[in-house]
Specification:
Length: 478
């Protein structure tokens, strides 16, 4: 029996709240006041180090995703009226969908997704060598070391988001709100599944780290979520994110003068004809003609985009909501191993989405200027990792002395530790204090793991401009 009263609960780690409506409002307040949410205003969506406030940042993108998720949730409620006890948790269903979507990118590093590649590349090629040289591993702990190495070389914004809300900022959100963020159900320490494996789509990327495995397991048990499965509201967040990307990138590309109004129309028309896609083509043709009736070119594009986006968004929301309802039992139990927007490959809506995705990849993401900025971001992050490397080269006891305010022989490390976030250091201390020293090799392995997490927590939490300034400062460029 699909009963949302068992999924949308008031359970949380500390200071339980008995009333569901108050619990939901508490989650909203905690999320809206979170520093990591505010930092998204200065993190890249597509264009790194962007000065034009009209071009989307991670925050403005997240606001759009949250509104689309709210729309999807309300549409599903209409279609499921009188079913699954949804009427009794209506506000919680809508708010959890909206808030999950607002913070879905909260763990993303500066300079966009390319930064994940930069961090993982540095750890794999530089960081793990320090790990190898610092700790001599016995056979008993070899498996643990390999697991930790795999985890550290798989930094991911989704997993970092779970870490931020549970460990770094301790938002103490309800279990329902936390687990709805778990877009991918595989731990970063686990191997990537083969395509034909069970739940291969939901496990294709890391969803959480070794450091958060216990809290994730606890929440799954509390909400009866089986291994490898999702929380039902996660599907809504994912669909809202997919829909919000479609027109946004082209609008920003026109603002950046990468594309023109006429070029956008021409590209969509060409791609539709190439893919034999008639739904989007007819939509674009209709609104292109209406836009051309206006003399002002900037207004032409705005009118064309507004009409197209509104019509397409409404149609896609209706489509994904129907897929949600048609596959509800599997979605409620988290077994539905696909994105709502990609489920029906032959749907006119899926084809329309593919047209817009192809254009963005070819003419926006592969733009030379954007790629140049991505390369700058890669250089900045790799260099920052190198700058903070002395902290990773210390013995466990030396670093313990350092974080507790004691003097050590490494002059540079004594200066670097003061630059790290105090909240991040507290999270490190809390994790290490729980470790047992009965097996000293195991202790050293896990201590270094949490130390490496500390460095990545700090660097990945930077905004674009802060990372640039920190790079200049530590490189003595200014």
């Amino acid at each position: 029996m699909c009963d949302y009263r068992k999924k949308l609960t008031t359970n949380r780690e500390f200071y339980p709240i008995k009333d569901l409506d108050i619990s939901v409002e508490s989650d909203r307040g905690r999320i809206l006041s979170a520093p990591s949410l505010r930092r998204l205003q200065k993190k890249t969506q597509v264009f790194p180090l962007e000065l034009n406030a009209a071009v989307r940042s991670r925050l403005t993108h997240s606001l759009e995703v949250s509104q689309t998720a709210r729309f999807i949730a309300k549409t599903i409620l209409k279609k499921c009226e009188g079913k699954f006890y949804l009427s009794e948790v209506r506000d919680a269903f809508i708010s959890t969908s909206e808030m999950t979507s607002l913070i879905h990118d909260i763990g993303n590093p500066p300079f966009g997704h390319f930064a994940e590649v930069a961090l993982n590349s540095w750890m794999k090629n530089k960081g793990i060598k320090i790990f190898d040289n610092l700790i001599e591993v016995d056979k008993k702990n070899l498996e643990l070391k390999n697991l930790l190495v795999n985890d550290l070389c798989n930094f991911d914004g989704n997993a970092q988001g779970i870490r931020i809300i549970t460990k770094l900022q301790r938002l103490n959100l309800s279990y329902s709100q936390i687990i709805s963020m778990l877009k991918y159900t595989r731990g970063a320490f686990e191997p990537k599944p083969l395509k034909n494996e069970k739940y291969s789509y939901m496990r294709k990327k890391p969803g959480y780290y070794y450091s958060e495995r216990d809290i994730v397991s606890k929440i799954k048990d509390s909400l009866d979520i089986q291994e490898g499965c999702r929380f039902p509201i996660t599907y809504i967040m994912e669909a809202a994110d997919d829909i919000s990307y479609l027109n946004a990138d082209m609008e920003d590309a026109v603002d950046k003068k990468i594309l023109t109004f006429e070029k956008v129309y021409s590209l969509i028309k060409q791609e539709c004809e190439k893919m034999d896609e008639t739904y989007l083509l007819e939509l674009v043709e209709e609104y292109y003609q209406k836009a051309k009736e206006n003399e002002s070119e900037p207004y032409q594009f705005n009118l064309f985009l507004t009409l197209t986006r509104a019509k397409l968004t409404h149609a896609l929301v209706e489509h994904v909501s129907q897929v949600f309802v048609d596959n509800h039992e599997d979605i409620f139990n988290g077994r539905f191993d696909a994105a709502l927007l990609e489920f029906d490959k032959n749907s006119k809506y899926t084809k329309a989405v593919k047209v817009l995705q192809n254009i963005s990849i070819e003419h926006i993401y592969n733009n030379k200027d954007i790629q140049t900025l991505e390369l700058k971001g890669q250089k900045i992050l790799s260099t920052l990792c190198e700058n903070y490397k002395p902290l990773l080269e210390l013995e466990a006891q030396e670093f313990e002395d350092l974080v507790h305010g004691k003097r050590i022989s490494c002059f540079i490390s004594q200066r670097l530790i003061r630059r790290l976030s105090s909240k991040h250091i507290v999270a490190y201390k809390d994790s290490v204090e729980k470790l047992s020293k009965d097996d000293i090799v195991k202790y050293k392995l896990e201590e270094w793991y949490y130390r490496a997490r500390l460095i990545f927590d700090y660097i990945s939490g930077m905004t674009d401009d802060f990372a640039l300034n920190e790079y200049k400062t530590l490189q003595a460029l200014i």
